[in-house]
Queue: 2 jobs
Job 1
Amino acid sequence: MTDQSSVPGRSDPTTWVGIDASKDYTRPPPLSRARVVRAALGLVDEKGLTALTMRALATELEVSPMALYNHVRDKDELVDLMVDLMLAEVDTSVTEGDWLTQLRALVRSYHQALAAHHELARVYSVRVRIGPHGLLIMERTVALLLEAGFSPAEASDAFFVLFIYTAGFQQIGDIVPRRDSATREETGYYPPLPPQQIPSITAVSQHLNGPHRPGRFDYGLDLLLAGLQVKMAQPEKVATAPQ
Amino acid sequence: MTDQSSVPGRSDPTTWVGIDASKDYTRPPPLSRARVVRAALGLVDEKGLTALTMRALATELEVSPMALYNHVRDKDELVDLMVDLMLAEVDTSVTEGDWLTQLRALVRSYHQALAAHHELARVYSVRVRIGPHGLLIMERTVALLLEAGFSPAEASDAFFVLFIYTAGFQQIGDIVPRRDSATREETGYYPPLPPQQIPSITAVSQHLNGPHRPGRFDYGLDLLLAGLQVKMAQPEKVATAPQ
DNA sequence: ACACCTAGCTGTACAACGTACGTTTAGCTT
DNA sequence: AAGCTAAACGTACGTTGTACAGCTAGGTGT
């Protein structure tokens, strides 16, 4: 439309001082798949999941929205790539200690990677397509379980359980009804429930409210690992569900 | 604008045969919040989450899209109400057996309700606002843990862990890379990973693939409950994470 | 040196979504 | 019969993901 805006760097001081008019020094590094994905991850970490729109991402990269489609097929692929970038942070190289120790270290590293990008982690578990780094984590976890002596069937069950717990953990933050600030605006939303009807919740409400207690993830992980431990040591001692 | 279209029933045979012009027999039962929410839940159960649009729901109810907004504030409230309707199916009245037995029954019933509406359950955990039925489940779970002898702090941690595992379970179905059918269309999506690099996954792939094995949920639940059991019996015996 | 090719970026455009707004209508009250 | 009120309506707007076609710069062959 206007040639004013179509000439890059026209209003940029570093160009019209005129070092070499034929070369555009102000041009950002050329777009690449990695740059797009990194920028997207940064955007989500900083401004949240809903802030990730192709337009916003393009603006961030100083590029038109459709330029992104030269590097990612669609938004879905972009998110998959973001997830794999996040999972690249997981340390899968621990080889010290027995299987329980190693397994704990692996899952904790996994958890920390998700926690570092908790906004992205909220959609993670819904994803089906799995990337190379996700595969690597999976491989190490299953390998440890097999080495521990679990059967292939049980190893895959155990893997799923650990996986589900870890991935699910990020999704659940502060739940619990806010009876204080937001109550007035949800008038008629739900019929209010008096504290007498929920005595136990009321009794422990201080622990339920707010964000996750630090160490809460480890608490659940220890429960699961303790369960695995006794199952490995004396399978018949573990009570199981009927039917 | 045009009186032609603004006069209702003009082209409807059942009205202009004229049994009683003042009464409109063809009118469906009047819209209500409950009817809207039930229809929405049915729609999601049947056609999936993405099929839930206000337009589609209105069509299902033979009503214009905006009519829905007389009964729900917005789509967000609608989903919250759907979730609570789903949670109404959980049986919270079991009082037989010791705390472990009751807890297992409660969580399993919870799981079954989510499984019966697994499409809706996929967004469930992300929700923050909690309804009366969700509160009731929470109350019973925490009460059982307190009765078992856990401290308020530990009871709330245990509740969260059970909650996270159960809610998270629905979100993770068949993961694992499909090397077979979909591989050709994801060319260049991810660099392909040869089976030699993921020997353990390859060894147990038959168990990892496909939908959840029946009983897999119970497997993880038993692990968690076993962990709780030994923690209650002999807390010092449980290995915990360092730092 | 000049014409050509190609990869990548741009502008324009469209369909589907949630929902705000102002109007119309039906059924009850008086 | 007249009038009021709550519910449903039609229209429209802004935002989203993305298809399409044209432009443009950098490298290549002659």
Job 2
Amino acid sequence: MTSNSADLTELSAQDRILQTAHDLFYRDGIRATGIDKIIAESGVAKATFYRYFPSKNDLIRAFLDYRHQRWMNWFEEALARHGAKPGGGLAPLLPALAEWFQNPVYRGCAFINSVSELGTLADVVEISRNHKQDMTAVIAQLLPEPEQREQLAIAVAIAVDGAIVKAQFENQTSDKAETLAGLAILLKVLSAQKAMDSP
Amino acid sequence: MTSNSADLTELSAQDRILQTAHDLFYRDGIRATGIDKIIAESGVAKATFYRYFPSKNDLIRAFLDYRHQRWMNWFEEALARHGAKPGGGLAPLLPALAEWFQNPVYRGCAFINSVSELGTLADVVEISRNHKQDMTAVIAQLLPEPEQREQLAIAVAIAVDGAIVKAQFENQTSDKAETLAGLAILLKVLSAQKAMDSP
DNA sequence: GTGGGAATATAGACAGGTCTGTCTATGAAA
DNA sequence: TTTCATAGACAGACCTGTCTATATTCCCAC
């Protein structure tokens, strides 16, 4: 999920804007990033910017959609890399998330950040809610038991979101050990949930 | 934890500013709230504002300290109201948090929101980290086992933070049933953790 | 080959709004 | 008189969005 800003030259103007906005919005915050900065760093003219994104709010929505796509792709790919199979259990979650948390550009979940920052915009909240639902659906695929799978997936997603937040509070250069240890406990007890409930 | 804006008349100018800022920052966001709006709603003059808060950043820090105090007081009081005793277990957590999540002005955790919005300000992150440590310490008091109490408290705090975030994504007027059900599962399995580990 | 038009792009001036912070003038209470 | 307060003008920075002028490339017709 690294963004290679050096590769902007081969992209269309629209993609350059979107990728630059993605990086700056994620790093510094949406409101903290003026459109002139995006324009300067993506190397487009103002008229081009407004051709593709008629307003900043349009760009914000595009950013969230783009982020959703990228993140979901990464999430599923990282889980698979760590051995995920349908119904195979929660084990791949921890190393996959560790990968993300330990990325030097990590600054939490773009959707949580956006709702925090722009919670008064209904479509930001809607997009973010949908993102979390999709994340929860992927987690549900990991769970072995069809019974109460949805409920358990929600509980796991809550644990994941909590870890995402806590990792954001840890020093950026740290290995997020405390967060990962706490999440490990949660995933362990949630995995053991079925053993307890099985007759 | 209701703020009664109608009671501002009996407060000092400084407290009026602080309380007004608290309400507006929490409701709309810090950057979304200009100082002129705080000034207008607290009924002070600009010179008075700057007498007590030499810059907006000073006000933000004061807001976070004030919020910390208020929230921690509420948290401990709500747990006690729901039957909390040292070592008495996690049961009071769910109703206490339900109380908060179901408050019509609920908009998540001010500290999570602030880090999301202003993550580039080091002292905002520091204050927020300290807040979470204090919250975790209160949670630790609920746990019965001295062994691994710190680790378990961290896991519980992660679950709580996840629920805080998810409740913010639910519709503001809803009863946050999905979040509370998910959190209930987490607290149940975490509470059962000791039973599993005890010989 | 040349010229013209269309499409897309660049650089950036400009208007108007919002924001933070500085400051003046005045008023009220002790 | 001192202290603390009010109302609000003002400067400068930043922001979003509108618009002008210009440049480049491609395609087509002559």
